[in-house]
Amino acid sequence: MIAGSVVASATLPWLADWNHSHTFGPEYGPHARWHGTSEVVGATAEGLLALWLLRAAEEHRPDERLLTAAALLPIARWAPFNLTLLVPGTSPTTSTASRNGCWACRPPC
C-alpha cells in the first residue's frame, strides 16, 4: 500500500499539472511556471527517495524507521495542500477555472 501511494505521489502531478491548462496555461507567468515545474519535479524526487527507502528496508534487516520515512513522504508532500485552506482568501479553484469547467487551479487574471 505504501508503494502504491508513493508511485501515485510521484506520477500524478505530471498528469495533473504538466499541461496547457495548468503549468503551461496562458494565465501563468514565468514565476508561476517555475513553481509548477518545481512541484512536479519535487514530487517525483520525493517519490524516488521513498521507493529507495522501501527497497532498502526490504534488502536489509527490516528497519521501521525506513518504512516510516517512506510512508511519511507522500503525507509531507500533500498535507500542505489541505492546510493552505486555513489561510483566508485561498482556494483550490478560481472562478476562471470553474467557468471553463476545468478543475485545475489557475492564478487570478
Protein architecture, described:
This protein has helices spanning 2-17, 30-59, 64-83, 95-99. By secondary structure, it is mainly α. The relative contact order is 0.16. Residues 95-104 have low confidence and may be disordered.
Feature tags:
single chain; 109 residues; mainly alpha; 4 helices; elongated
Lay out the secondary structure.
Layout (H helix, E strand, L loop, with lengths): L1 H16 L12 H30 L4 H20 L11 H5 L10
Helix pairs in contact: 1-2, 1-3, 2-3
Mean pLDDT: 76
Most strands sheet? none
Q: Compute the number of strand runs.
A: 0
Inertia-based shape? elongated
User: What is the beta-strand fraction?
Assistant: under 5%
Helix content: 55-70%
Task: Supply Rg.
Answer: 17 Å
- The SSE order reads HHHH
Low-confidence stretches are 95-104
Oligomer: single chain
Quick rundown:
The protein has 4 helices and no strands.
